[in-house]
UniProtKB/TrEMBL annotation, chains A, B:
InterPro entries: Homeodomain-like_sf, HTH-type_Tx_Regulator, HTH_TetR, TetR
Organism expressing this protein natively: Thalassolituus marinus
Keywords: DNA-binding
Lineage: Bacteria, Pseudomonadati, Pseudomonadota, Gammaproteobacteria, Oceanospirillales
DNA-binding region: 24-43
Protein name as catalogued: TetR/AcrR family transcriptional regulator
Residue span, HTH tetR-type domain: 1-61
Keyword Membrane: no
DNA sequence: AATCTTTTAGAGTAAACACTCTAGACATAA
DNA sequence: TTATGTCTAGAGTGTTTACTCTAAAAGATT
């Protein structure tokens, strides 16, 4: 593997584990056993590393959010979208943790991210429209627009929500188990729009992700 | 006004304008025309200032989120809750901008914030329960729990969402006009649960906060 | 006046960190 | 061998920033 890719992989790992802010470029180099000079030979600056990681993340998410053109959407499609997106979110979880800071520090990334957001929003609206056409939900265009935006907000804020409100110490206590609560919450957004025909099957899917009663209790 | 209060007011202003990260303690002192030593006489450290500001914020929000015991909830109550909360959010907007960082840096604040969150969530659930008892919405307990949590997430993430996805440059372009979109979004969460009797009046309220078509367009 | 407490000034410091610079190793081709 | 372009090492630097320390001014009390 090229040094450039090794730098990206190590950066992603360290950023996810400790947060972008706490990981210095010297730290990344030391972790790989290379010199800071070498790192800066391959990347113009720290933002360059982050930009490259964003490109990976973007490609991954856009690859997931596609509506099939040859068939109608099915209940399980919804689940696949959510699992795919949440897995991507997990693998690049450092990103939404400090998005505002990252974007403020790099105007080019900011512009790119805005385009990414708009495209995602369109795709999510297309998915809800597909669910509507398949008779799974009943919702107006206005409903769908609101639903899509709220979905974006809940999905992109979920990890931040967990870290602020559920973790007790600095340990990486965010587990896949907690991730499930996010899927449940997104299902909850859509649930009141379900048609009578599909209520049972979708509720059954949602219930699989119901958080344990304990996850909100004080410990 | 005491020096202590002047420090808090100046800190709040500067934090809101520039973000907590960009405002140094020397900066705050210079802005007030006092010495750094003086600032540290009144506050143990920068986190002490933030903690005191959080106490103000917490008191303000909890004062708003109360369910009247002597009467049933009315449609306008919902609006008042939202306006009150969003105004508080605006006045302390630096806080949710960097909440994860603030909490990670101060375990005492983190514990306090978790308690605050839990209390808020209970209060929001109580409000939805009140709306249900008043016949304004029809929702199960499980619906209400999901609704309350999604409401919390959308409300606390709204400014961050705006800064990431709508601002073009570093100028303070977040206006009260954009704030309205947040109120609209929270209404959208609740809308599918409205009873037939109240749909018209609530939709009318929500429509006042409908964002202009332009606010999502590219510029 | 004298003493004690509270408040303020302001120079200074230690640590952190993104990034630079020079020089040398290594590979490839003429 | 020599020349050329690519990659790497590692010491070092300039800046930023939260916070300290000493001493003095201001205020209160007897």
């Amino acid at each position: 593997m090229s040094t450039k890719d090794r730098i990206l992989d190590a950066s992603l790992q360290l950023f996810n584990e400790q947060g972008e802010r706490k990981v210095t470029t010297n730290h990344i180099a030391a972790h790989l056993g290379i010199s800071p000079g070498n790192l800066y030979y391959h990347f113009k600056n720290k933002q360059g590393i982050i930009f490259a990681l964003f490109e990976r993340y973007e490609a991954r998410v856009l690859n997931i959010l596609q509506v099939p053109t040859d068939r109608a959407l099915q209940p399980l499609d919804k689940l696949n979208y959510l699992q795919g997106v949440f897995n991507g979110l997990w693998d690049y979880r450092f990103m939404h943790r400090d998005m505002e800071h990252l974007l403020l520090a790099d105007a080019e990334l900011h512009a790119r991210y805005r385009d990414f957001f708009r495209l995602c929003l369109q795709r999510v609206e297309a998915i809800f429209t597909g669910l509507e056409k398949a008779g799974i939900i009943a919702a107006s265009e206005e409903d769908i627009a609101g639903l899509a935006l709220n979905t974006w907000i809940v999905v992109t804020s979920w990890f931040s929500f967990l870290r602020c409100n559920l973790l007790n110490d600095e340990a990486d206590a965010i587990s896949p188990e907690l991730l499930q609560g996010g899927i449940y919450q997104v299902f909850a957004l859509e649930r009141p729009y379900l048609t009578a025909e599909y209520q049972d099957v979708m509720n059954e899917l949602q219930r699989r992700y119901m958080p344990r009663p304990a996850w909100l209790a004080s410990r």
